[in-house]
């Protein structure tokens, strides 16, 4: 386990210990009032109980949010590190002799979601259109809906090197810092997105 994540483990231990302390404290306070002083529990005591319980609830909610529900901001350079990988695709041939680099399967019953299939190093890869997009090199480079700073200078170099037929894989990981450690995610995988670059639309094979 990444050492930074021990911050989160320690924080959870403190929260759990706080829960037991609050329960023990409320119980003792009530027993002292009822048994030792033989008095009734007042609103002041109840208000103090509520404050302590709210503190514990806030601590638990805060840790749950940090650990499970916080969203990934790919443009947050303080917490996220993004690396880019470039893999050349292998051309395939249809029955009519036309070559293509990527196949789009539109038979998915889930409307609005297609499956992209392409080939790298004699291996077949499939990816949902929710996690990838196809980029036609005859048009300006544009990836809508994904907030990433794409390295255009490097992409232009790869366009020339691979003749506009390659896959850009952007992988985001959580950096090693206090905030990510508190959320138990330091060094872990955050998200991945792929851009399938093709010379032009004619190199796409659509299957229905």
Give an overview in words:
There is one protein chain. The chain has helices spanning 6-36, 43-69, 152-162, 178-182; strands at residues 80-88, 92-93, 99-100, 102-105, 115-120, 123-128, 132-136, 166-174, 189-198, 204-207. By secondary structure, the chain is α+β, with helices and mostly antiparallel strands. Helices cover 36% and strands 27% of the residues. The protein has two domains: 3-69; 80-207, no CATH class. Helix 1 runs antiparallel to helix 2. The strands form three sheets. It has a four-stranded mixed beta sheet, covered by helices on one side. The mean pLDDT is 90. It is built from four helices and ten strands, in the order H-H-E-E-E-E-E-E-E-H-E-H-E-E. The longest helix is centred in the first third of the chain and has 31 residues, at 6-36. Strand 5 and strand 6 (123-128) form a beta hairpin.
**Number of DSSP strands?**
10
Using only CA atoms, what is the Rg? 27 Å
Overall residue-averaged pLDDT value: 90
Number of helices: 4
Strand count, sense and closure of the main sheet? 4 strands, mixed
Question: What is the element string, with H for helices and E for strands?
Answer: HHEEEEEEEHEHEE
Q: Give start-end ranges of low-pLDDT stretches.
A: none
Strand content is 25-35%
The global form is elongated
Number of domains: 2
What structural category characterises the helix and strand content? alpha+beta
Spatial ordering of strands, largest sheet: 1-8-9-7
Distance between the termini: 45 Å
Helicity level? 25-40%
């Amino acid at each position: 386990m990444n050492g930074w994540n021990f911050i989160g483990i320690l924080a959870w231990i403190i929260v759990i210990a706080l829960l037991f302390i609050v329960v023990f404290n409320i119980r003792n306070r009530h027993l002292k009032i009822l048994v030792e002083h033989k008095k009734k529990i007042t609103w002041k005591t109840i208000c103090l109980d509520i404050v302590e319980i709210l503190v514990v609830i806030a601590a638990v909610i805060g840790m749950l949010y940090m650990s499970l529900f916080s969203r990934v901001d790919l443009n947050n350079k303080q917490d996220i590190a993004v690396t880019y990988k470039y893999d050349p695709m292998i051309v395939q041939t249809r029955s009519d002799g036309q070559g293509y680099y990527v196949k789009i399967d539109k038979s998915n019953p889930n409307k609005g979601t297609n499956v992209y299939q392409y080939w790298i190093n004699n291996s077949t890869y499939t990816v949902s259109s929710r996690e990838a997009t196809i980029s036609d090199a005859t048009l300006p480079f544009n990836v809508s809906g994904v907030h990433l700073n794409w390295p255009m200078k490097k992409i232009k170099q790869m366009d020339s090197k691979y003749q506009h037929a390659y896959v850009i894989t952007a992988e985001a990981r959580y950096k090693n810092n206090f905030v990510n450690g508190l959320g138990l995610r330091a060094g872990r995988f955050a998200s991945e997105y792929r851009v399938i670059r093709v010379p032009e639309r004619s190199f796409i094979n659509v299957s229905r």
